[in-house]
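[job 0417] fold request received: OsmC family protein
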Amino acid sequence: MTEASMQQQPKAPDVHTLDVVHVEGDVYSVDVRGHQLMVDQPTDAGGRDTAPTPTELFAASLATCVAFYAGRYLHRHGLHRSGLRVRTDFTMSPDRPARIASVRVTVVPPPALSDQRHAALLAVASHCTVHNTLHQPPEITIELEV
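[job 0417] inference complete; emitting structure tokens
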């Protein structure tokens, strides 16, 4: 294979695998590259409220992705991340199917960040991977392994 033909080959997709296993009741354990996360349901939904819900983790995923991108912007420009916060509010849809109807993400910049940098910080934070994915949803397949 020549160098020119190697450059034309599309890159193979980078597949990431997560495993979820039942623990007890409504509690599930998520294994992510050896890291453990737990999910549960609130007591009023039949769970024991020992961990966040999957829906809360979905919103947290967006918030932490925004925070990561904002933090990288600050670091890249030699600015301190101390005081950087991201707050997320979401509302559930009142109709079916069950889903999140709206999400509001608020970036609280570090107090020392100049007003001139606010728009750039917001622009970078608004293009995080999770936000991009929500704007261009992936193909999702749910299958049963037997």
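[job 0417] notes: The longest strand covers residues 100-108. The CA atoms of residues 3 and 39 lie 48 Å apart.
[job 0417] exit 0
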